[in-house]
Amino acid sequence: MKYTTLLFFFFVISCKNEVKEREWSAAMSAPYSYRIDGPRVNYYLKGKLINSTSTLTSIGDFGWGHPDSARNSGYGIAFPDSISVAYGGLNDRLQMCHYKGGAKLPVNRIKELFYKGYVCDGKEDNFNYITAGLAPGGRVCVWVDFVEIKRFKVNLVDVYSEEPIIFFGDSLDKLKVNEYLKHHPIDYSIWEKPEKKHDIDFGFTSENESVISSAFWVISNQGARKIIYEQMIKKRERNKSFNFDEVLKKENETNRIILDNESQFMPKELQYVWRYGKDFYQANIILSKDIQGFFLEPYINAETGKSSNYQMIVLGIENDGTHGTVYFEGPGKKEKILSFKAGKYISKEDGDTSEFYYPEIEYLFKKSNG
């Protein structure tokens, strides 16, 4: 009887461990187009190296928080209690610098996330990555997939270039990097606290039926880059407003994280590509802090007399297929924000020279709702 009880006890314990073990991969990310060169990230448990990831080239194509292409040492099972990083990145004078350092990690929080998982579209799912985000000025952020668990700063070691450079030239060239940085100068404070998400939808409309939305990306202040797929873009006839339904939020009954696919980071840049006839056109639209603040500022709905918020950013293309207007829309209100003329889009096969095409913009919004 005692022997049988012991066997049962060990069986239960082994099954429990088997259920709770979670494999994970080490990953890295960087803010979109704030290039990070030659990074290496190590994860430790009680001083012992348990996982790592590195690359000799640059990262930053996929954006802040999104795992980028790199080598790693395979799947880990033990969870880390500390991290070290070393990488080349920009400072606010646009010099390339070596940064190096480390920090303690909340290992119990990491275990909890991997053991519990999360809910997406009503289905349970598992976490897969521990990702280190490497930003200018030695700013570092660590996520378990999309859940932030740590921010810290590492030390400047030295300056190795007086201007932005790219290892091996395998990605963006110097001209494009400088063009992007001209419009988005480095501000360290951006990466010192989490970025808020908001209920933002995106719309597309055109006066000409021959104009077809092709691709649309949004870039957040911290450098997260997200593609807005065709099925995610709401469309309507020109000069007609969208109907805004009340969004119902469900309680988290399982005490797990519920992934909200509707919420978005407030974009600092909109990257549009559309087709008109046989040609493709592109415009990269900067949304300044004033414009972002305008979108987030409540207004009084003239129809109801109640406070409302803008809920949608809409791109409208005129009949000629090249001129456009960006609107903010919400219940009972539509506001023209800016207008522009697009440039022709050139594909990667042709050199991708229009990736950072910034048109001249006429701003139409008022800084205060009055």
Number of domains: 2
Using the CA coordinates, give the radius of gyration. Answer: 24 Å
How far apart the termini lie comes to 82 Å
Please tally the helical runs, counting DSSP H or I stretches of 4 or more residues: 4
What level of helicity do the residues show?
10-25%
Strand content: 35-45%
CATH class of the largest domain: Mainly Beta
How many strands in all?
A: 29
Low-confidence stretches: 1-19, 167-172, 236-255, 350-354
Envelope shape = globular
| Mean pLDDT over the full residue set | 80
- What is the level-2 CATH architecture name of the largest domain? Sandwich
Structural class: mainly beta
Concise summary:
The chain is mainly β.
Description:
Strand 10 and strand 11 (139-144) form a beta hairpin. The radius of gyration is 24 Å and the shape is globular. It has helices at 2-20, 107-116, 174-183, 289-296; strands at 25-29, 36-45, 48-54, 58-59, 71-72, 82-90, 96-104, 118-120, 123-125, 129-134, 139-144, 147-153, 155-161, 197-199, 201-206, 211-220, 225-227, 234-235, 257-259, 263-265, 267-276, 279-286, 299-300, 307-308, 312-317, 323-330, 333-341, 343-344, 361-363. It has 2 domains: 22-191, Immunoglobulin-like; 197-363, no CATH class. Residues 1-19, 167-172, 236-255 and 350-354 have low confidence and may be disordered. The N and C termini lie far apart (82 Å). The relative contact order is 0.12. The protein is built from 4 helices and 29 strands. With 370 residues, the protein is mainly beta. Strands 2, 3, 4, 5, 6, 7 and 13 form a 7-stranded antiparallel β-sheet that branches.
